[in-house]
Structure formats: structure tokens, C-alpha cells
Write a structure and sequence with these properties.
homodimer, five-stranded parallel beta sheet, four-stranded parallel beta sheet, 14 helices, 9 strands
Chain lengths: 332, 332
């Protein structure tokens, strides 16, 4: 665990794509005339909400577990997560028929806890304010001898998430579309770095824009500083899935040469995006998963892009949360 | 208006496909491992919720308006509808830059009224229990000399809706899948007849199953009787979009030789389908639009199909309605 963390490359994404083929859903690219009209450009949406477990996290989890040596797999896997990574690891472990224990905050959304249990994982709750989830995970690993599947700070997790970006480029090219910009929700930076690597290799003209919630804008701070820099990470946010104050070593190592800055959105912008997704797009997108859409909505007036991509990264919200967003922003 | 109504054929669907190309969205076919596992077969979903205006109704409306002679178009179009046909006609008329007046019940879902107005149509409200919408439409037509765009009893409306079925066959074939059965929400029978014509021509082994709400099961009654037969059509139903007590002459004329029976689902089954669509599929499907899914969920145990198709016909529900369905059926 103390070896330096390897920085992922595009070759890792290509390898991951081969491993997850036939297991991960190849989510489509969606286009809506109404959204194109609203933003004055073509908008291609990658709905990872349709991925196994309702978020892109399955890609990284399956890729990472697939490279655990056969001899080690029986000891199982351990992960800590507020919910989407939890479900990704639980579902991937179930496909490999190995035990999974997930350390989850007791205040995680009900649907994420239920989802994680539904894939057969054992859930170990902790108090987000009083306990250290990494310490709990370390104890579990000492007991079982299992493998830790990190949420983002692992080159094979980044590579797995990057397959979503690779598909996005391929699908946009099949439509004859060159994307000027791609908006990606950003927490610890796993999918951001993966998507950045994929576009740098396959569509280098495309600018990849991470979008972070207010007070959890560690990627933007790090990119501007040129080194990993923590955001305060204290404010309440409806984006439960993006509350990492600082990008991981592996994601930032890949992202720093490829990206220049990130956008920040608050709860109002996230609610507006969730409401628009529900009302106009007929999609259930959780607040964190709608950060890319929020970023695109807020900045469309500032650019003259002709085509953009948006990753809708997750849809695991309780109905009440979606309802609150729709009520807060009745007309998208 | 007194000429006998022409019965549509597959050739009408082929003609419609040419007219709507580039205007209607080619909605994808979606597949979810979780839904396949739940139903024990491959399930391919056709989400017409992503169609322009949030339902398949745009297809028929655009096709019908496109064949109004140029000299007549300026007088505009009139339609009566509880909401989805209203929006389809309003949006299609806007694309042709002609005026549209829609006769809508005052108790139509808010989102459907707002949607209809947002496309620039004039809305003429009426009281569903006291007034006759056809009489109101006739008066408007007498005043304007415009064209009535019927919700389902018109061969070119049926043909337009049938393009959804034609795409479904083509997309399933591209995946190498032969569908054993296709479940279609059924109100006045427009999309049911269109889908039946498309499958009869292109995939005759597939059984097309209309699914109707309790007390509005006119298609099933008519198919069993061999002639158009009205259902009571009095009960309250959450499927506001399927409350036609009897299939139209054009749809039934096409359907009677191709279909043998229909399924009936109640509010509980519709709520379960809406809840499952929200929670598992991350899709916003209105109660009527979920009738096909409800039919598939309720009858899966009775058949040994290896692959089925489901048309998700509309997604124009107010958030409160979706919420009520999810609350009524917490675990799909």
C-alpha cells in the first residue's frame, strides 16, 4: 500500500475496455431537439445513469476487480463509498462471485444503501462526522486479507471510468460530430481523468471541463496551483456523490497535463439541472450526476461551441430528492 | 368529414417514415441487465419519452400535418387532446409555421398544458364532464376553415405512430434479437395499430400485446367481439393518456386482423411500473406510458419468451404524480 501510485495512461483505458466488454452496458448518446434549441448548439448526452448500478462506477470497479489475482479473489474486496462506488463494487464482486464489504456513511441516500445490499454486499455503517472510513476499511482488510478497491485513487479505477469517455468519442464520431467541449461531474477526479485521457488520445481538439460543487472544488484549485490542493469541503451540498475535497494522486497525475481549470456550481444550479433532466429529458439524474449538465447550462452563453458532450454520471437519487429539486426550480 | 375512414396499411408507415425523417427523434433501444434478470429474458425498451414533446404523438401529428395541402395550411390546425397529442400537434404545427388551437380538458396535467403552450399553440379549455370536445373543435373549424388533426382515428396518424414500431423491429434486428412479444400502451389504438402493422410486415413471428387501463379496455373488448365495442370508461384512472373507451375505426380496422386480445392493468400495476422505471431504469414514464411495462411485469411468469420489446410511450407527468407512484410502491 505504500508503493507510489502509478499514473494511468490511455493504454490502461484500452485494456480496461477489453476487460469490461460484455459486462458493462454500452450506454447510448442521446440528443434532444429541445435541449439543442435551449443551448443553441448540438448537445450529446452520455447517460451513465443507465449503466449497471446506475452510475459509471461499475466500469472502474469491474476493471479493478478483474485484475485481482485468482489466488487473492476468495478473500474478497473492501470499499468505502457514500453510495455509487459502493454499488459498483458490490455488483462487480457479485459477477466474480466474491464477497464484498462496503463501508458506508449512515446518512447515505436510502436508495444507495438498499442498492448496495441488493447486490449481496455486506454494509458496514460509520458516522461521517466522528469516524474515519479509511481506518475502518484498514481494520476490515487486516481481518480478511482482502483487496481494497479505492473509489478513485487507483490507475485501474481511472482507466475503467475512462471507457465511458472512449465510448463517447467513438459514438460522437459515428454521428459525424466533433465535440468542442465535454462537461464531466468531478468528485475525486476518477472519471474526469479517465475522460480527459480518452479525449486527449482520440479527440484532442475537445476541451474537457470538470464541474465541481461549491466548497468541494479541489480539482479546480489543484489545476490552478499545479499541485494537489484541498478545498474546504465543509459546506452542505446536495451533490452527495461529489464530496471529495481533493483529487487523488492517480487522477490528478493524469489530469494536470491535460486540463486547465474546472467549473463550480452550487445547489441552485444543480437543482435546476436535475429539474430540467426530469422535465425536459425524462431522465432521473442525481444532483452530483447532473453537475456536468449544470455547468453546460450555466456557461452556454459564454461560448460559441457548435457541439458539446455532457456526462450524466449517476441517477441514484431517492424520489424525494428529485422532487425537492423540481419543486425548487419549477420551470427549467 | 363524412367519407368512410380509410384503413391504414404498412405502405402508409413506409411513407410516413420518409416524411418524418430528420424531424422525429430516432429513439434508441435500451437494455438493462437488472431488468433482464428480473424478467428472466432480454427486454428491449423503446423510450418514446425521448421523442420530441415527450411522447410518440409527434410522429403521427407531423405526418398528418405534412400532407395538408399547401393552400390549406395557412388556416391552421385544430386538435382535441388531454395532453400528449396536444403537444405533438403543437410542436409539429410550429415546425410548419402554421397556427394550432388545442381543445384541452381543464384538469389535464399541468406539465401537458404548459408544454402545449410552450410550442406556441392556443389552448381552449373545456370541462371533461360537462362539455363535448368534438363539438368545440367543430365550432373552431367552422370559424377558421382549418384542418382537424384527430388523436387516433386517421390512417395517417396511425401510420406516423407506426414508425416507432418499424424502428423497433429494425433496431432489434441490428442487435440480432427476434422479439417474441411486444407490449404497447393502448388508448384509442393509434400506436397499437401502427406497431401491429409494422411487426406484421417485418417481424410476423412477434406477438403484439396492447395494454389498457381498467375500465378503458375497449381494444380488448373489440378484439374479442370482432367489432368496435366500447368499455365503460367511467372509472378514475391514473393513466390520463389512455382514457379512450373505444378504439377508432382506422386503428381497429388495421388491428382486428393482426391482434387477438389485450391485457388490462389497474392503477396499482401502473404505479409499480412507474416506480420501477424511476428507480431501476432512471426513466420518467407517465402512468399511461408505463402500461406496456406494467403488462410485461405482470405476465412474465406466464410465458417462456426469450426476448420481449416494450414501448414506453410517454413521459409527460408532473413530478408529484411520479412521486405518488414511487411512494405507493417503494420497492419495485
Amino acid at each position: 500500500m505504500n508503493a507510489p501510485i502509478r499514473i494511468p495512461t490511455f493504454a490502461d483505458i484500452q485494456a480496461a475496455a477489453g476487460r469490461i466488454a460484455g459486462q458493462a452496458v454500452v450506454t447510448p448518446l442521446l440528443e434532444y431537439p429541445a435541449l439543442n434549441a435551449r443551448l443553441g448548439r448540438r448537445v450529446l448526452l452520455k447517460p451513465e445513469i443507465f449503466q449497471r448500478t446506475g452510475s459509471f462506477k461499475f466500469r472502474g470497479a469491474y476493471n479493478r476487480i478483474s485484475i485481482i489475482p485468482e489466488s487473492e479473489r476468495g478473500k474478497g474486496v473492501v470499499a468505502f463509498s457514500s453510495g455509487n462506488h459502493a454499488q459498483g463494487v458490490a455488483a462487480a464482486a457479485a459477477l466474480f462471485k466474491i464477497p464484498a464489504t462496503i463501508v458506508m456513511p449512515i446518512d447515505a441516500p436510502r436508495s444507495k444503501i438498499d442498492g448496495t445490499k441488493s447486490y449481496g454486499a455486506k454494509v458496514n455503517f460509520y458516522d461521517r462526522r466522528k469516524e474515519d472510513r479509511e481506518a475502518i476499511a484498514a481494520k476490515l482488510l487486516a481481518e480478511t486479507g482482502g483487496t481494497l478497491v479505492r473509489p478513485f485513487d487507483d490507475p485501474d479505477i481511472v482507466a475503467g471510468q475512462g471507457t465511458a469517455g472512449m465510448e463517447m468519442v467513438q459514438q460522437a464520431k459515428a454521428l459525424g460530430v466533433m465535440l468542442d467541449r465535454v462537461f464531466v461531474p468531478c468528485g475525486g477526479g476518477g472519471v474526469t481523468a479517465g475522460v480527459a485521457l480518452a479525449f486527449a488520445a482520440l479527440s484532442p481538439q475537445t476541451k474537457v471541463v470538470p464541474v465541481e460543487p461549491t466548497d468541494y472544488d479541489g480539482m479546480g484549485r489543484s489545476l490552478r496551483a499545479g499541485e494537489r490542493t484541498a478545498a474546504p469541503g465543509k459546506a452542505a451540498s446536495i451533490a452527495d456523490s461529489l464530496q471529495a475535497p481533493m483529487p487523488g494522486v492517480a487522477p490528478f497525475g493524469a489530469a494536470k497535463a491535460l486540463l486547465s481549470d474546472a467549473l463550480v456550481v452550487g445547489d441552485t444550479e444543480l437543482s435546476r439541472a436535475v429539474s430540467l433532466a426530469f422535465r425536459m429529458l425524462k431522465l432521473v439524474v442525481e444532483p452530483g450526476g447532473a453537475a456536468g449538465l449544470a455547468g453546460a447550462l450555466e456557461t452556454a452563453g459564454q461560448t460559441s461551441d457548435s457541439a458539446i458532450g455532457i456526462l450524466l454520471s449517476g441517477g441514484n437519487a431517492d424520489p424525494e430528492t428529485i422532487m425537492q429539486c423540481c419543486a425548487a426550480v419549477p420551470l427549467p
